[in-house]
Structures are given as structure tokens and as C-alpha cells.
């Protein structure tokens, strides 16, 4: 056991590079270095790699190729959507209270208000409707941003209902969804069909870090964050990251092709993990799950890879330390928030008491998770909690 590779259960933070992405990128690194904006044959070949990747991405997310803007990742895609719309039109910006900081921070900067969520982490549709009521004489709402799936607890948002409410009450508002965590689990072409703007990030689905995309449908007016040579139809200047873009496209098509199988397999692993932890650890509560009539957990509103629990009387940091010693790589919350002493704003918005949120543990599974990884976590978490309780 000591020599076995660690059980990597932090796929929501980042995923291992898929072989399809690696092979495609190595090939580009070996044979293409020209600038895709150039006029000679080598430049045209680089341009073709970007164009082919754009077509693959467009097809996978249900957009037209001209609607795909490549960015430096999910954070830039989210910032471009929120700040780009806020700068292009007057009016309030609304986002859910459980957004990733890449949406929440630019929304706050634009004077935006958070829309509350219920205890499962789903947008409160009544509250959203109240916030969408047109104010007499004031500008209409500029943008509503609601993520497709949450990065901490895995809650899938009712995007259809959100889009319906926004289109009915504020037909001119732009709709953005951060689909960064959704790609491995949900058909983004379907769930985000009613949204004008859709953010993606390659390293959450087996692609490289530092590359992402924003879908901008139908020529929606957007003020660019980066101005310069006018690449990406002037929506994102800067020489394209050809290698990263090719890796993103290769990872995306492989992920989409295998998604149904992955979801089936990983959901069963996740259920075994979550049910096993609840049974083995007194005072451990699974976060944001509904209860079935038979008392079991109803996780239909969660992505397949998400297992989030709060453990009474435990500090996340100490637990993560012991888990790492036992060969389990996990997280307290999102990668950005872990290490911070403040409990997660996502859990606070869901009404999880501060005392419980201090013992938050996120075990996020992915396409490469094995049954042995789950076994290891099922052995390590109860043992670590037991040790911490005995010494506290
Ligand atoms: N949005 C969500 C929901 C995320 O989980 C993340 C990454 O954790 C991001 C945006 C940021 O993406 P990136 O790491 O590519 O900047």
C-alpha cells in the first residue's frame, strides 16, 4: 500500500492530461511554431490547426465556429463574459451566490448582486424573479450569470428555468453560464443552449492548463479585455496558444465521446464512496443532498464526480494533512479557497453552519478514478478522523 500511487481525488481542481491531448500537442510542438496570423504556408498551417480546433469545440458545445473565442482559461473566459458585457451595456449584473470567484469578483466589481441559493445549492428561482422585476425608469438588467455545475459541492443548476425567467422578465439581458465544471458530466450543448455566453477551461477535462474558451453567441456586443492585434475577431487580442488550443480540442472530443460511460462508472464509484463515508464516520454529513423516501441520499442534482462532506469537530486542514500521509489527495473546497482559514462562501450561501463548514472535505472523482482510489479513501478518511478526534 505504501508504494501504491496516491489516490488522486481532486479532479475538480485539475484533471490528468488525456493521452489524446498529449499526443496532439506533442505533434504540434514538433512541427508547428509559426504565428497563425502570418501569410506564408507555415502560418497558414498553424491557422488551420486553430480553425480545426475551433470547429471541434463549436460542435461539442452546440455553437458556430465563429462564436468560439479562445482564452487563457476559465478565469479569463468568465472575466471576459462579465466585464465585457458590463462595459458594453448599462444595467445591473446578477450572479448566483455560489459562483466561482472568476465570476463573483468581476460581478462584484461591476456592482453586481448575488442571487440566493437553496440548501442544495440551487438558485432560488423566486428570489431571481424578484430581482429581475423591471425597475420603472431604470436600465434593464445587463447580465445574469449562473454556473452550470458548482466546483465545490457539484450542484447542477436549473439552467432551463433560469433562462426562461430571464427571457420572460428581462428579454434584453445577456445570459452567461460558467460551464467549466460541467464538461466531463453534462452535455453542454444541451444544458447551455439558451445561454448567450458559455465558459470552458481545458484543464478540467483532461486538457492543458492555461487555455479555455468563451462561446459568444450571435454577435453579442462584448467589450474586449485585451486589445491589440485583433485576433479572435477582435474579442481577444494576442497570438493564439496554438498548442494549448489543439490540446483543448482533443481533450474535449475524447471527453464528449466517452462521457456517458464515464458518468455511469464514476457515479457508482461516488455513491459507494459517499455512502461508505456516511456509514463509517459518526458526525459526517454529506453536503447538499436530498433524502429519498427510503432514507438514502438523492444525488440526482449533482455531477457524478462530486462527493462533498462536512465532518463535525474536525478542521479541514489537519484532515487533509493526514489524508495526504495516507496517500489520498483531496481538497477542502475549491483549489483557490483551500488553505484559506475562512469557511467557503459557497457553503455559507447554502446555509451550512460555520462550525460544520470548518470540517469540509471535497473528494472529487474523474475519468481516471479507480475502484482502488475509492477503497483507499474509504479506509483513510475514517482512520484520519478517528486519529484527530482521539488527539483533540
Ligand atoms: N470556474 C469554475 C467553476 C472553476 O472551477 C474554475 C477553476 O477552478 C474556474 C472557473 C477557473 O478556471 P481556470 O483555472 O482555467 O482559470
What does this structure look like?
The protein is an alpha/beta fold and 392 residues long. It has two domains: 7-15 and 259-391, Alpha-Beta Complex (Aspartate Aminotransferase, domain 1); 19-254, Type I PLP-dependent aspartate aminotransferase-like (Major domain) (Aspartate Aminotransferase, domain 2), CATH 3.40.640.10. The chain is 41% helix and 13% strand. It has helices at residues 19-31, 41-61, 74-88, 101-109, 125-132, 159-169, 188-191, 242-280, 316-325, 345-349, 354-357, 371-391, and strands at 7-8, 68-71, 93-96, 113-115, 143-145, 174-178, 197-201, 212-216, 284-286, 290-291, 297-298, 306-311, 328-329, 360-364. The strands form four sheets. It has a seven-stranded mixed β-sheet with strand order 2-8-7-6-5-3-4, sandwiched between helices. A three-stranded antiparallel β-sheet has the order 9-12-14. Strand 6, helix 7 (188-191) and strand 7 (197-201) form a beta-alpha-beta unit. The longest helix is centred in the middle third of the chain and has 39 residues, at 242-280. The radius of gyration is 21 Å and the shape is globular. It starts with 6 loop residues before the first strand and ends with a helix. 51% of the residues are buried. The model has no long low-confidence stretch (mean pLDDT 95). Bound molecules: pyridoxal-5'-phosphate. Pyridoxal-5'-phosphate (PLP) is lined by residues 73-75, 78, 100, 102, 147, 151, 178, 180-181, 201, 212, 334-335. Pyridoxal-5'-phosphate is lined by residues 73-75, 78, 100, 102, 147, 151, 178, 180-181, 201, 212, 334-335.
